[in-house]
Design goal:
About 15% of the residues are buried. It is built from 5 helices and 3 strands. The chain is an alpha+beta fold and about 110 residues long. Helix 2 crosses helix 4. The chain has a 3-stranded antiparallel beta sheet with strand order 1-3-2.
C-alpha cells in the first residue's frame, strides 16, 4: 500500500497538475472552464488532472447546477511537510557528521 506522501508526490509530479493546484490555492474556487482557459491543455485533460488531484485529496469539488467548482485543500499536504521535516533532520545529521570528519582531517 502506498504511503500518503507517495500519493501526493505522484499527483504533484505533473507540471500541469501542479499549476492547477497552485492556481486553486492562489485564486480560490474555479470551474473546469475557468481552469481550462488558463491551462495549455484541453478541457478533458484538465478534468483528468482534477480527478487525480481529487483522488489524492488535494482538491474538493462542489456541484452547482451544471457546473463543478473545485477548491484546493492545502491541508492535504501535511504528509509532505512531515516527510520533508524527517528528511531535513536526516540530511542535517549527515552534513554535521561530514563537517566533523573534515575538521578532523584538517587537523
Amino acid at each position: 500500500m502506498p504511503q500518503p506522501h507517495d500519493v501526493l508526490f505522484r499527483a504533484l509530479a505533473d507540471p500541469t497538475r501542479r499549476a492547477i493546484f497552485e492556481r486553486l490555492c492562489r485564486d480560490g474556487d474555479q470551474t473546469v472552464a475557468a481552469l481550462t482557459a488558463q491551462a495549455k491543455v484541453s478541457q478533458p485533460a484538465v478534468s483528468k488532472h482534477l480527478g487525480v488531484l481529487k483522488q489524492a485529496g488535494l482538491v474538493h469539488d462542489r456541484h452547482e447546477g451544471r457546473q463543478t467548482h473545485y477548491s484546493a485543500q492545502p491541508g492535504a499536504l501535511a504528509p509532505l511537510i512531515g516527510w520533508t521535516s524527517q528528511m531535513t533532520g536526516f540530511w542535517q545529521s549527515r552534513f554535521d557528521d561530514l563537517e566533523d570528519l573534515l575538521k578532523r582531517m584538517d587537523q
